[in-house]
Design a protein that fits this description.
The structure is a homodimer of 586-residue chains.
Chain A (H helix, E strand, L loop, with lengths): L5 H4 L7 E14 L2 E8 L2 E7 L5 H8 L6 E10 L14 E12 L15 H6 L1 H4 L3 H23 L3 E2 L17 E3 L7 E3 L5 H9 L4 E9 L11 E10 L3 H20 L9 E3 H8 L12 E3 L1 H4 L5 H8 L3 E7 L8 H13 L6 E6 L2 E3 L8 H11 L6 E7 L1 H18 L10 E5 L4 E4 L4 E4 L14 H4 L8 E6 L2 E8 L4 H10 L4 H14 L7 E7 H9 L29 H6 L2 E3 L4
C-alpha cells in the first residue's frame, strides 16, 4: 500500500485502508485505548490503538514517545460528534490502526517542539527540531512557492536565468566584502559578491537582452534584525528599455506572484510618488500607505505666529510639520505624549510640541501662543476636528522627516490602524543621484555608481550634484523597501563623469572598473533593471518580522551558525596552503 | 511601434511595418545600396538601405560599423529567389529600412566575434564579446531551459526548494575547502560548501520530507578540463524512501527533462548494471553503452595456453581480457597498433598483445603460441570473425580494467561508432562502500561517510570492509557520471561504526559531526537522495566537451577570472579587519 500524506487523508473515504508515516506529536492513554497525534509536513491526524482491533499494535504503541518516527496502516473512521477537533483540518476523522512499525526511537528533545517560549539561541542550535514546527515549515513552503512563481513568470516573459560567479572580485565601493584567499595566486583574494550588478550589465553588453537570477549575495556588515550575512536577491536586467518598461514588467510580475501565493488580485499600475513627495508627505522614503496620518507642512503659517520655536525655525530655513491624530485627544495623557516625545528624540528632534482640539479651542502648553484667529487658521489649514491630537516638530528638514515619519509609523501600530491583510505596493521615483556624506565631505552614489542621471540633469553632474535626479525607482510594500532599480549608464564618457563626481581618481577608476568602461566602447545597448530583497519579500508575505523565520539555516546577530558551530578554527596546514597567517591580538 | 525580436519577424506578413534593435553583424555596400546583417539574441536578419526609400537612413548607415547598436523601423520584403540565404532562418526575407537610429557606436573589437580561432584566454578576457556568439547564447538558453524544466518537475512532485548556507563549516573529509575568514570571530573561518549533504539530511530530520535545490558548490582543487572551482548541483533528498523510489523519481525527472529540452521520448526504466558487472564488461564505472566492444574475460582459457605472459598472469591471480574490434584487422597497421599500445601504457598496462583473424587463422607476433585447437577455442569463446582485430591486456585487475576500458572508448571515437544523437541513460548500482587507499593504508568512503551499507553486509563493516556493498547508485549518461546518490544512514550507532571504519577517533568524530549524530537520536526518518552535476548535464545536452562553454563567466584552469582580474590583492585594512596577515614566501 502506497504511503500517503496526512493532507491526502481527507480526500479518501471512510473505512478506506491507508498507510501513513510521520512523527509522534503527542500520545495519550485513555480508557484502555491509546491516541497518538501523528505529524508529517502536511498536517496532523489522530490515530487510535484499540485492543479489539490489534492487541499487538496497542502493545507497541505503549512504548512510543514524542518525536518517535512511526509507520502505520489502518482505516479511516468518523469521530464521534463530541470528539471533533476544530483546530486541525483532519479533526473530523481518525485512523483506526491495524499495524504499526517504529522506524526510529527518539530521546526526549531538549525542548517541546511547539513551545514558542524557548530562546532563539536554543532553537538555532537544534534548528532541525525547530524546523519541525508547522509554522516554520509553512514559511519555507511559501518561500518555495514564491520562487516557483518568479521562475515561471520570468521564464514565460523570455528572461534567461544566468548564473554569475560567487568567487568574484573585491571592490571598495559599497559594504564590506567577505574575502576568500586564493591558493593558486599567492597574496590574492576573491570576494563574495554583494550583488551581481556588474555581471548583469556585462550580460546586457553581450546581447543577452533579458536576464534574471534568484541569487545569493553577501555583506560582511553588523547585522540588524532584518539583515543576514548571506541573503537572496531576485535580480533582473533588460536591454532596450526605459523606466516605464521596467515598471510595467514588475507590475506584471507582482500581480502574478500575489495571485499565485495569496490568491489576491492586485490592481496595476501601482501608485507612484516621487522621492521628494514621499519625504514631504510621509517623512520616509518607503511610505506605508495603508493608513493616513500624513505629515503636514505649516512652515509658511509658522512665520506669522507668536510661538518663537516655530517662527524662528521657519524663518531660518527649517521646517515645521505636524501630524493630526484624529479623535485621540482624550485618549492621550500627558504621560503618553511624553513617551512620544522620547521616541522622536531618538530620531534627533529636540522636542515634540502638541495641542489638543476641544470644543473650546486648542488646549495644551503651547496653545496660548495661538490667538483665536491663528487657531481658526490652523484648524482650517490642517483640517483639524474636535478631539484631534496635533503633534508638531520644528527642526532641520532631515530631522523633521525622520522624527515625524517614524512617529507616524509608531502611531499607526499603537492605534491599530494597520490592516494586516492589505498589500500596498508603491513606486518611489525620481531619487537623488547622490547622497552627501557630511563626515567625509564628499558625495556618494545614492543607489550605486552605475545609475544614470535624468537626461535634463546631466549638466549639473559637476556643478550641482545635489540637484541631479536619477532614473531610479524603488518598489515599496507596506513601508518596506521590497526592491530597487534604475536605468543604467551605458556610455563610457558619462560613466567616467560619474566616477569623477564620486571622487575617484582616473587611476582608481581604471584599476577597478577599466574593463567595464572598455566594454561600453564595443556597442552598448541601453539597459536597466531591478533587484528584490527575496528574504524580505517572503517575510512580508509570511507576516513575520523576523528574517530568521524565512531562512532554513540562518546566522545569529553575530554571524554564527550555532548548530554547525561555524565559523570555526581550521588547521595550520590549511592556512599555509592559502599563504595566510593568523593575526590574533594577545 | 513595439520593438520585436528577429525571431518574431517570420511570424509577420510581407509589407508589415516592424521595429527592430540589435547589433551590426556585418555591413556591405553594393550598387548604391547598403546591406546590414542585424543580430539580436534570437537570430540574424538582413536589413536594406535604399536611397529611393530613405536617403537619410542610407546616409546614417554609411557610418555604421560592426557591433554598432542600432534601432531600425521598416517593412518586411520578400527576397529575390537568387538572394535567398539558406543558412539563416530569416533568409527568405529582408527589411527595407525607413528609419535608423544609432544607439551606440563601437570601436573595432579585439577579435571578430565569429572567429573560432581566437585563443580562449583572449575570449575570456573579453567574455562579454565572446558571449555575443550565437553558439554560446544558445548554450546559456539551454542551461536556462534545463533549470526551468527541473524546477517545474520537482515542484509538481511536491519537492520544496530550500536554500542552504554558502557560509558553512570546514570539514576535513573530502576535497580542499575554500575558506572565508570571519571578522567577528577572531581566528575562525567559514568554508564554502562542497555540497549541501549535511544540510539536506538535517532537513529530512526536520520533517521536510522532499527537498531539492539547484545550488552552487565549491572545491579548491586543481582543475581538469571539465571541472570548475564553483559548480552547480541539482540536489535532491527524500524521506521514507528506498533505492527503488529514488531511481523511479529520477527516471521520471529525466524523461520529463529530455522531453522538454530535446523533444525526445526516453524509455524508462533505464537499464541497470552492478558496479562489478560494469567493471567486468566495460572496464570503467561509467560505461558508454552507445557501442559494443565489450571487454571479454579469457583468464580461465589463458591458464591452458602456451603463451607465458597470459598463462602466468592468469595463474597468479591477474586477469587476461580482450576486446574484439570487428572487421578492422586490415585497417590497423603495425604502427597504428603501436599507438594503441602507447595509449594503454598511460593507464598502467605493460603492453598490448594483439592478433588479427584472417581466413588462414590468426596472424601477429603472438599467434604462434596458439595452436589450431587453441585458436579455434578462442574464436569460439570470443565470437571472433574473419578480419577482426583482437586486443589483449594481461595484468592486475585494476590495470586491465583501466587500460582496456579507456581503450574501448578511444576505439569507438576513432572508428566513429558513436551516434551523437543517442542518449543512453544507465544506472550503476551496488557500489563498494569503501575504497582502499594504498598510500595511506586506510579505507575511505567511496561515496561519502553518510552512505548506508546494504543490510546484509552490515556485519562485515569491521571484519571485511572491502566486501561491504553500499545502497548507492550512479546515473550515467553516454560514458559520463551525471549524478550519484545513496540511501543514507539514519541510525546513530551505525553512523558511529562507519566513522570508526573510516579511522576517525571518537573525539574527531564528535568535534566534526557530533551535532549530526545527536540529531539522529530525536526521531530520524529513513532518507536518501541524489545530486547531479548540473554543468556537466548541460554540457552533454549541448554537445560540447568544454565546461567553460556552459558557464557565463567561467574561471581558467588556474582558477582566475581574466575579465574581472580576480582574484586580486586587497588592502591592508581589509586584512587587519579579518585578523589575518599575508604569508608570502620571498
Amino acid at each position: 500500500m502506497t504511503r500517503i500524506f496526512v493532507s491526502e487523508v481527507i480526500e479518501k473515504d471512510i473505512n478506506e485502508s491507508i498507510h501513513l508515516s510521520g512523527w509522534v506529536q503527542r500520545r495519550r492513554d485513555l480508557g484502555g485505548l491509546i491516541f497518538i497525534d501523528l505529524r508529517d509536513r502536511t498536517g496532523i491526524i489522530q490515530i487510535v490503538f484499540n485492543p479489539e482491533v490489534s492487541e499487538k499494535a496497542l502493545n507497541i504503541a505503549e512504548d512510543v514517545r514524542s518525536e518517535f518516527v512511526i509507520d502505520v496502516k489502518g482505516t479511516i473512521a468518523q469521530r464521534d460528534e463530541s470528539q471533533v477537533n476544530h483546530n486541525i483540518e483532519t479533526g473530523k476523522i481518525e485512523i483506526i490502526v491495524e499495524d504499526i512499525e517504529v522506524i526510529s526511537k527518539a530521546k526526549t528533545p531538549p525542548f517541546h517542539i511547539q513551545d514558542e517560549t524557548v530562546t532563539e539561541d536554543v532553537r538555532l542550535k537544534y534548528r532541525y527540531l525547530d524546523l519541525r514546527r508547522p509554522k516554520l515549515q509553512n514559511t519555507l513552503k511559501l518561500r518555495h512557492q514564491l520562487k516557483q512563481s518568479v521562475h515561471s513568470f520570468l521564464g514565460h516573459e523570455g528572461f534567461i536565468d544566468v548564473e554569475t560567479p560567487v568567487l568574484s572580485k573585491s571592490t571598495p565601493e559599497g559594504a564590506r566584502d567577505y574575502l576568500v584567499p586564493s591558493r593558486v595566486h599567492e597574496g590574492e583574494f576573491f570576494a563574495l559578491p554583494q550583488s551581481p550588478q556588474i555581471y548583469k550589465q556585462l550580460l546586457m553588453l553581450s546581447g543577452m537582452e533579458k536576464y534574471y537570477q534568484i541569487v545569493k549575495c553577501f555583506r560582511d556588515e553588523d547585522l540588524r534584525a532584518d539583515r543576514q550575512p548571506e541573503f537572496t536577491q531576485i535580480d533582473i536586467e533588460q536591454s532596450f528599455v526605459d523606466q516605464e518598461d521596467i515598471m510595467a514588467l514588475n507590475e506584471r510580475l507582482i500581480t502574478q506572484v500575489m495571485k499565485d501565493i495569496k490568491g489576491m488580485d492586485i490592481t496595476a499600475p501601482f501608485p507612484r510618488i516621487t522621492y521628494d513627495d514621499a519625504m514631504a508627505k510621509y517623512g520616509v522614503d518607503k511610505p506605508d500607505t495603508r493608513f493616513d496620518l500624513h505629515l503636514q507642512d505649516i512652515t509658511e503659517f509658522s512665520k506669522s505666529v507668536d510661538f518663537k520655536v516655530f517662527k524662528s525655525t521657519a524663518e531660518s530655513g527649517g521646517l515645521v510639520n505636524a501630524i493630526v491624530v484624529p479623535d485621540q485627544a482624550d485618549a492621550y495623557s500627558r504621560k503618553d505624549i511624553d513617551k512620544l516625545e522620547s521616541f522622536v528624540k531618538i530620531h534627533g528632534a529636540k522636542g515634540l510640541a502638541w495641542m489638543k482640539s476641544t470644543d473650546e479651542g486648542f488646549s495644551g502648553p503651547i496653545a496660548k501662543f495661538f490667538d483665536d484667529d491663528k487657531q481658526d487658521e490652523l484648524k482650517h489649514l490642517m483640517n483639524i476636528n474636535d478631539n484631534d491630537l496635533v503633534l508638531f516638530v520644528a527642526d532641520k528638514k532631515k530631522v523633521v522627516h525622520a522624527s515625524l515619519g517614524n512617529l507616524r509609523n509608531k502611531l499607526a501600530k499603537d492605534l491599530g490602524l494597520i490592516d494586516k491583510n492589505q498589500y500596498n505596493f508603491l513606486w518611489v521615483t525620481d531619487w537623488p543621484l547622490f547622497e552627501y556624506d557630511e563626515e567625509e565631505d564628499r558625495y556618494s552614489a545614492a543607489h550605486h555608481p552605475f545609475t544614470s542621471p535624468k537626461k535634463e540633469d546631466e549638466d549639473k553632474l559637476e556643478t550641482a550634484p545635489e540637484e541631479v535626479r536619477a532614473n531610479a525607482y524603488d518598489i515599496v510594500l507596506n513601508g518596506y523597501e521590497l526592491g530597487g532599480g534604475s536605468i543604467r549608464i551605458h556610455d563610457k564618457e558619462l560613466q567616467e563623469r560619474m566616477f569623477r563626481a564620486l571622487g575617484f581618481t582616473d587611476q582608481e577608476r581604471d584599476e577597478q572598473f577599466g574593463f567595464l568602461l572598455e566594454a561600453f566602447t564595443y556597442g552598448a545597448p541601453p539597459h536597466g533593471g531591478i533587484a528584490y530583497g527575496f528574504d524580505r519579500f517572503v517575510m512580508l508575505l509570511a507576516g513575520t518580522d523576523n528574517i530568521r523565520d524565512v531562512i532554513a539555516f540562518p546566522k545569529t546577530a553575530s554571524a554564527s551558525d550555532l548548530m554547525m558551530n561555524a565559523p570555526s578554527p581550521v588547521s595550520e596546514d590549511q592556512l599555509k596552503e592559502l599563504h595566510i597567517d593568523m593575526d590574533i591580538e594577545e
